[in-house]
Amino acid sequence: MPPTPPREREPLSPDALLLVPALLLAAGACVAVAARHFALAAAATGTLVLVPAVFRLWTRTWYRGLVLRGLGLFIAGMHLPMLAGGVLAYGRIGCEPADCAQTLLLGIALAPVAGALCTVGYWLVGRPPV
């Protein structure tokens, strides 16, 4: 039996290279929202949306329905932090109205970041329907 040649490493896909900065931008936006730096959070969220969209425009073909599905995921993903904030506020028995309102407002402030992350994630890994 002849020896098998060593396996060559496959090059990293552009999606994998772009996913790490996207997650870092999302984390930075969440930290900025928690620190009440809304201008920085808006800048990070805008960058989170623009970088993959520009990357996708330059490197891939867009198929019919990709933008519409991405917007649908934005709306769906936007509701996750608001729902989590509502559940956390409702689950706190005997909390002061100001404390409960802060939890709800934090969920509302994080909503665009979560929606953008869902859209960007779909645009990065989404495949055309068969």
Largest sheet: none
Q: How widely separated are the two ends?
A: 42 Å
Q: If you average the pLDDT, what whole number results?
A: 80
Roughly what percent helix?
A: over 70%
What proportion of the residues form beta strands (DSSP E)? under 5%
Write the element-wise H/E pattern from the N-terminal end onward: HHHH
Structural class: mainly alpha
* Low-pLDDT ranges: none
Q: How large, in whole angstroms, is the Cα Rg? A: 19 Å
Tell me the overall shape: elongated
Number of helices: 4
Find the count of extended strands (DSSP E, 2+ residues). 0
Keywords: Membrane, Transmembrane, Transmembrane helix
Protein name: Lipoprotein
Transmembrane segments: 16-35, 40-59, 71-91, 103-125
Sum up the structure in keywords.
mainly alpha, 4 helices, 130 residues, 75% helix
Plain-language structure description:
This protein is mainly α. About 75% of the residues lie in helices and about 0% in strands. It is elongated and about 75 Å long. It comes from Corallococcus soli. This is Lipoprotein. Keywords: Membrane, Transmembrane, Transmembrane helix.
Helices, strands, pairings?
Layout: H1 14-34, H2 38-59, H3 66-91, H4 97-125
Helix pairs in contact: 1-2, 1-4, 2-4, 3-4
Give a quick summary of the entry.
This protein has four helices and no strands. The protein has helices spanning 14-34, 38-59, 66-91, 97-125. Keywords: Membrane, Transmembrane, Transmembrane helix.
